[in-house]
């Protein structure tokens, strides 16, 4: 059984065998203190995760949502509405959620289609390369600019900083690796990262009018909203959008590419056109790029013959719940028309359900449609490389060949 507190346990992909063992033998599992952080409990079964996610009064987000321990001062400096509980959470969510509503996101389909068509066409013309760089990274990056309302010229830089922020434990994304160097100088920055300083400066420029944003972007909606966010809250929200608005969708698309490239029959099934409405959720379930969110117990809880004490950290391992055989038939197998796909990848069932859910689904569906139209085959040329992270884990490079019809 691998140590889930150790980022190196994830460098060859999610340790699904460990999670399967936990679900079977230790559905409430204690991990001892590691790398200067306190120990924590892990919930790995779908039913337990869903129950905890629905009970923010007992399993609170208001002391942080990652394994890392924080002082109260650090928490207040870095928190977004993700790190709050109702009713405070809903007060902020009401300001921003309208811009992410399903009907609003549906209006972006034409833009997503145009971008995806061009991105896939260039990848098909290139033929061989890194599927993440050619496709999976490109579409979320381009859409990030449209959704936020920032200039296209800034997107490469923003995505680089977002990668450094959320990939703060991976040396391929940052020189300031969280568990390898002293990051105390950035304790008040998002993800304890120097990239947070630069993204704060960018957000300050937006707030001061030095960096214009479009009138139809989410940032303008947030700036003009009644009860608008204060300056620090806006900067932290901006950092969240840059990081989460790009990386998690990228890794879902990357997982789809990986699974399709290693199984020609699966790609043939997608190309049949029968599964576009359901395949995306199945690939998202199998990717589960946000592996966990942490909660903090607000009272003693007896569960599975053990006692979670008030103040203990409790990790909700969505990635494990999404492969629970009690809920999903053949949980490790892509079933493109899986009925009643009750996956937890977006934090469904609780107040913190992902704002970007509808956009991620739209981008993945359109990518699958464009690949089906423009490519005859995908071939895996070598095994993928995975992010070094127990928080956001996904395929970061994927050598493939794309064959035109």
From TrEMBL:
InterPro entries: Cyt_P450, Cyt_P450_B, Cyt_P450_sf. CDD domains: CYP142-like. GO terms for biological process: cholesterol catabolic process. Gene3D superfamilies: Cytochrome P450. SUPFAM superfamilies: Cytochrome P450. Pfam families: p450. GO terms for molecular function: cholest-4-en-3-one 26-monooxygenase activity; heme binding; iron ion binding; steroid hydroxylase activity. It comes from the Bacteria. Transmembrane segments: none annotated. Belongs to the cytochrome P450 family. This is Cytochrome P450.
